[in-house]
Amino acid sequence: MIKIGGITLKKKPLLLAPMEDISDPPFRFLCKQYGADIMFTEFIASEGLIRDATKSIKKLQISDYERPIAIQIFGNKISSMVEAAKIAEQANPDFIDINYGCPVKKIAMKGSGAGMLKDIDFMVEMTAEIVKAVKLPITVKTRLGWDNSKKNIVEIAERLQDVGIAAITIHGRTRAQMYKGEADWTLIGEVKNNQRMNIPIFGNGDVDSPEKAELMYNKYGVDGIMIGRACVGKPWLFNQIKQYLDKGEIIPDPLIKEKVEMVKTHFKKSLEWKGLPTGIFEMRRQFANYFKGLPNFKTTRLKLLTSENTTEIIDILDKIAIDYKNY
User: Fewer CB near the last or first residue (10 Å), C or N of the chain?
Assistant: First the structure.
C-alpha cells in the first residue's frame, strides 16, 4: 500500500494533474467517474488567497466524492505561501501540494512554479516553513531541473524529503523544455530507486496510453502516475489504464453517443459551476478535444465554438450523436 500522511492508497494509483482552466470541478467529476484515484485542484496563486480574490477563493471548493484531493498553491514569497497553506487547510483537503513545476513564463520568470528550480536553497526553505505551518501532509510537484545543465532532481527530492514532504510528483522535463520533446523518465526512476527516498514517487509526462503506463511502472518502478494533457477530452483514459494493468485488457474508446452524453454532463456541470456566460465560454476549449478525429467536423465545431445559447448547444451535441452514430 502507498501512504501520503494518513491517507492509504491502493497500489499504482492514477493522479489527475492540476491544470489551469482544465482541472476544475466539472472536469474532475468526470475523471473521478472514470477511474482517477487522486484529484488536484487547478493551481491557486498564494497572493490571490491571502488577498481574498474571488477567483482564487472559489478554487478552494472541493467535494467529498473527490477524495483524496489536494489543493495546489504557488507563489514566490515564503510568508505568502505559509499564509496561503493555512487558508487552504481550512478548506479541508486531504493534503496540500506545492507547485514547483509550472513552466509558463509569467509564473516561472517571477520565481514561482518552475522558477523555484533556479534557487534550490530557497525552495527547500519555503517547503520547510510550509510543512511546519500546517498539520496536513505537504506534497510537491516539480520538474527535472531548470535546464539540461541543471537536472538536479535527485538532490532536490532528497532535500525536500528531509524537510518533511509526504510525496513528490516529477514531470520528466526541465523548465527550459516547457512541454516540447519527449519526457525523460530516467531521472524519475533514479529518484524512485534512490535508497535514501522513502516517500511515494509519482511520475508525470507523456503517459497517453495503457501500454505506456505499464511500461513506466515496470521500467521505472514509480509508485503512481499523474496524467495531464492526455486525459483532456478523454477522461475515460484512467479506466482504460486500470483495466489494462489489472487484466491486460484493452477497453475501446466510448462510442460517439456515449461521448456526447459525457460532454453534456461536462457542459451541465460547467454551467452550474460557472454560470452564464462563463460556463459556455470556458467549455468551448473542451468541445474540440472530445470530438477530435471526427471527419468533416469543421462546420459543426465552428457552431459549438460560436453558439451562446445552451439549448442550441445541446441540440448540436444531439445531432452529432445521430450524424456520427457509426463512430
Answer: N
Question: What DSSP designation does 272 have?
Answer: H
Mean pLDDT of the 36-45 span:
96
**Mean per-residue pLDDT for 293-308?**
94
Q: Using an 8 Å Cβ cutoff, are 20 and 43 in contact? A: yes
Is the pLDDT assigned to residue 57 strictly greater than 90?
Answer: yes
The whole-angstrom separation of Cα 86 and Cα 90 is 7
In this structure, is the dihedral angle defined by the CA atoms of residues 196, 99, 181 and 252, taken in order, positive or negative? positive
pLDDT recorded at residue 1: 83
**Residue 285 scores a pLDDT above 90:** no
Q: What is the DSSP letter of 149?
A: T
What are 203's strand-pairing partners? 170, 225
Per-domain residue ranges for the chain? Answer: 2-247, 256-323
CATH of 2-247, one of 1.10.357.10, 3.40.50.80, 3.20.20.70, 3.40.47.10: 3.20.20.70
DSSP class of residue 42 equals P
Pair 176, 135: CB distance under 8 Å: no
**Side-chain-facing half-sphere of 188: CA atoms under 13 Å:** 30
| Mean local confidence (pLDDT), 251-270 | 96
In sequence order, the 6+-apart residues with CB closer than 8 A to the CB of 51 are: none
Q: Which parts of 37-115 are beta strand (E)?
A: 39-40, 44-45, 69-74, 95-100
CA–CA distance, 221 with 195 (Å, rounded to integer): 13
Q: What is the mean pLDDT of the chain?
A: 96
| pTM for this prediction | 0.95
Q: Decide if pLDDT at 108 tops 90.
A: yes
Q: Exposure pattern of 4-36 as b/e (b: 16+ CB <10 Å)?
A: beebebeebbbbbbbbeebbbbbbbbbbbebbb
**Could you give the CA distance from residue 183 to residue 13 in angstroms, rounded to a whole number?**
20
- The answer for residues whose C-beta is within 8 angstroms of residue 208's C-beta and 6 or more apart is 229, 230, 237
Question: Catalytic amino acids?
Answer: 102
